[in-house]
């Protein structure tokens, strides 16, 4: 075998190099097209300051077009595995859509009531009456001090979500 590279081998190596560079460039372009835009990613996160929430009075926030119920529990309200505990305070965080047909329940004295079919959820967002098949859903969140960031799955979310699966 000789050390000389003939013309045919050179053209073959050149073609392989151009094809490899073109293939890599195509993969980078496809990944950029498939990734969500930064504006879409930014819209997927909502920060809620829990220090302004009053005990016993749920507040409703919007995240990705869905209502999010946040309730700071009073001492009279039952404790639950589903509660988010920050310091001495206990909170219920839930997606405010009835798990029966997706209606938005309203807060009446000490529970959420769905006007559509009479479903009721206690302050821990558990279904206690009516046709809803399960508790209100838990949105993914991450705790940063007294603020929660909806859209990120933090350790507190994972702990609560694991208790709901059991």
UniProtKB/TrEMBL annotation:
It is a single-pass membrane protein. NCBIfam families: Rieske_proteo, TAT_signal_seq. PROSITE patterns: RIESKE (PS51296), TAT (PS51318). Residues 63-150 form the Rieske domain. The keyword Transmembrane applies. The main subunits of complex b-c1 are: cytochrome b, cytochrome c1 and the Rieske protein. InterPro entries: Rieske_2Fe-2S, Rieske_2Fe-2S_sf, Rieske_Fe-S_prot, Rieske_Fe-S_prot_C, TAT_signal, TAT_signal_bac_arc, Ubiquinol_cyt_c_Rdtase_Fe-S-su. This is Ubiquinol-cytochrome c reductase iron-sulfur subunit. It is found in: Membrane. Keywords: 2Fe-2S, Disulfide bond, Iron, Iron-sulfur, Membrane, Metal-binding, Molybdenum, Transmembrane, Transmembrane helix. It comes from the Bacteria. PANTHER family: CYTOCHROME B-C1 COMPLEX SUBUNIT RIESKE, MITOCHONDRIAL. The keyword Mitochondrion does not apply. Its cofactor is [2Fe-2S] cluster.
């Amino acid at each position: 075998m000789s050390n000389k590279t003939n013309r045919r081998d050179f053209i073959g190596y050149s073609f392989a190099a151009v094809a490899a560079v073109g293939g890599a460039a195509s993969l980078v372009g496809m990944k950029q097209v498939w990734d969500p835009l930064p504006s879409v990613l930014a819209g997927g996160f909502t920060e809620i300051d829990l220090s302004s929430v009053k005990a016993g009075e749920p507040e409703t926030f919007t995240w990705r077009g869905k209502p999010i119920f946040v309730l700071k529990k009073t001492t009279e309200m039952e404790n639950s595995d589903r509660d988010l505990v920050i310091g001495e305070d206990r909170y219920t965080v839930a997606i405010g859509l009835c798990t029966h047909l997706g209606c938005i329940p309203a807060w009446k004295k000490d529970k959420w009531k769905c006007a559509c079919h009479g479903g009721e959820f206690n302050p821990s967002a558990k279904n206690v009456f009516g046709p809803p098949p399960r508790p209100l859903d838990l949105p993914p969140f991450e705790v940063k001090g007294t603020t929660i960031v909806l859209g990120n799955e933090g350790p507190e979310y994972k702990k609560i979500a694991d208790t709901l699966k059991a």
